[in-house]
User: What shape does this take?
Amino acid sequence: MKKYILIFIAIFALTVQSCEKEFDPGGTVVEKLAGDWYCEFQYEDGGEWHNLLALYGYDYFLMTSYNTAANNNEMFIDDAENLWPFKGKVICDVNSLTFNTNGKQVENLYDETIPFEIKNGKVLQGGAHSVGGHVTDSIYMEAEFADDPGTIYRIVGHRRTGFTEDEDFNLW
Assistant: This one.
């Protein structure tokens, strides 16, 4: 009988001990730059910038930035085929929260005939307010697409918060 009690105690102790261990999955190299973003797609007309989406009755389009499988200083910029469509890798400086394509066009993973270039990409922590008034991060970048050479578009927006009141607008 003592043998069975000792086995039960040993199994119980191992079970309790295994439950006490917590696993910290950590983060990714570009986690401060990664997220879902509600963005305007701006064009310049006569020295003024306008939201192109507003011409069609929309406020924002949803764009995502996320790490690559290599988990290094690269990340994907991805509009999930919501707008242009475009998806490609940018080079990041996580310390300064900046990103770009190093002065060259990169492969567009949604349409290989339309490579694109990203310049002056930056995330500003706490630099925006959501539609519902919550402080959140802002994102800014300039984009040029091979099928519209010479035209620079500004993509500006704020990080998605997940609050219901922050999603009350017309999404492209």
Remarks:
- The mean pLDDT is 91.
- Residues 35-167 form a domain with the Lipocalin fold (CATH 2.40.128.220).
- The chain is about 10% helix and 40% strand.
